Amino acid sequence: MSRPVIIGVSGFTSEVGKTTLMCDLLRAFPGWEAIKMTRGHYRSCGKDPHACCVSDLLSDDPVIRSGRDQTYEPGKDTGRYWDAGASNVHWAIVTDSQVEQGIKRALAPVSAQGVFVEGNSFLDFIKSDLVIMVARDTGKIKASARRALAHTSMLYLLDDAGNGKADLASFNRWTKESGVDKLIGELPIYTHEDLPEVVAKIRSVAAKLS
Q: DSSP E strands: which ranges in 3-157?
């Protein structure tokens, strides 16, 4: 195999459940690796600096951290990947102009059969074999998510309450009322109850590429 199977995990907005899905998938695919793409700015991001701001980590070139020593921190996204069973974790910290170079550098050391990549903007530069967009009736969709929809294979609704049918009905109402239905078109929509089917689709893609 010339390169790993690349599965993108994108999201309508921040805090929509991308990392939760990443961890669910890593548990279903032991031995696979994970990449976290983080875009930052040379200024405060306006949020809690302890939670998300990476301005102090940015450099003239993409910053790539790989391996447990460099990426494991309890409770952080990359730490959660390790806890979910990732065989290796890579964290790419980039500016807007470094996304292409960053994702290519993060993919270079991947040696597993497959890798899950969390982020939106990398899809402008790398062809993924399957892309899952984590969605929710949030009232807004980030610009990077709107672009990522062009590469998306399916939508995934993370339902914390465990009522996927009600969540899907609510989401469908919101998409029609907001006009988002025109953006998502005929994309299939899955809920957490359908996770085994999502896993099966990834297995099918991986089998065809192996």
A: 5-11, 33-39, 63-66, 89-94, 114-118, 130-135, 154-157
